[in-house]
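Justification of resources, computational component.

The compute hours requested in this renewal are based largely on the per-chain cost of generating structure records like the one below. Each record pairs the submitted sequence with a full structure-token output. That output is archived, and it is also reused by downstream analysis tasks.
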Amino acid sequence: MTGQLAFVESPVQLLNVLEWAHATALRDAPYHPPATPGRPAGRDQPPPDPAGRAGSGQPPARPGPAGAGPAGRLPLAGLRLTVVVLSPTDPMSRGQLRRMAQLARDEGVTVKWQDARDGRGAVARTLRELAGPLRAAERVIVGDPFSRYVQLLLTLFGPRRVTVVDDGTATMEFAGQLARGERLVRWHRRGSRGPRELVLAPVTSLARRKLAPGRRRTVEIFTSLPVEPPPGTTVLVNDFSWTRTRFGPPRLTRGADLVGTSLVETGVVDPDEYLRAVAVLARTHGATRYFAHRRESTGKLHRIAVETGLEVVRPDLPLELIARRGPIGRTVVSFPSTVVHTLPLALAGTGVKVAVCAIAPEWLRDNASPRAQGFLAGVAGTATRTERLEFG
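The structure output for this chain reads:
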């Protein structure tokens, strides 16, 4: 393996690696502008304004590069991109990753499935197998900078070029912690330093240095979220152009759809308060379907189906792709999560309205992280392409 080497552990990370590859191919492909009346085609004519229509709220228009296929699709094989899937253990994530891996192969990307958590010796075997490719890579693309596995891999070799793609809203926290020089801690953790954290502290500290820009390292963040570039980094905008080129436009249904969240499973929101909120939102907006997050528990989903009458849907791909393929409701209602930033981009021009319902303070569990309320409010408040909902 040489060229670009990506490490992913979730379907969304793999989707965003494909978006990065597509954006890179668009950026690097030669542009041949069309001829205008009275002038021959040639490079002396400026390309379309990449800023798009001011105030339109739509992603910028992409110029048509040479070599693009039908609907602007570009071959990605020339990027020499290899994606290493550090396979998780839960069945839903593995199933979505299998389907995403096939989509990546269809685009000309090499995918290596690594059973990184498969019994004793898996960690040592994985480190041994990936040490060589990691050293040979021109660029390393990271799907989750908070991952202990990725941090451990980065201790083997310090890449000269690093790209971090979105792993949900964690990108916002990563950029902030990198800018402030803080240790990497997920926002929903309370920050306690138990025995495991103390043992892994040297690994985390070294990985943070290798994820930071320096004299011999460039770092870019590829994101659809509102992120202030930490000093020395470059932020590239993910406008979901691959998704919009590859899928849709979708057929719209008359009703609304709700998007589930794993805030109960991560210990942030009280399960009874969450169920009550789902019931009120479904009744208020005439929702008929509930798109479950892949980490939501079977027991919670059963309660939602029985007590609200919603049809619970377990997507087999990330929601951005499911929504773009359709059918999808004319209104999509979500709690604060990544999709309130990504769905308006993926569904641009389709007429779908995305609405966000803030998390009320009384919904939080007593042992939730002190940062939880502020972080979730920031996720909702910075979603500029969505409608705000008053809960009642």
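The CA atoms of residues 262 and 296 lie 5 Å apart. The first helix runs from residue 11 to 28.
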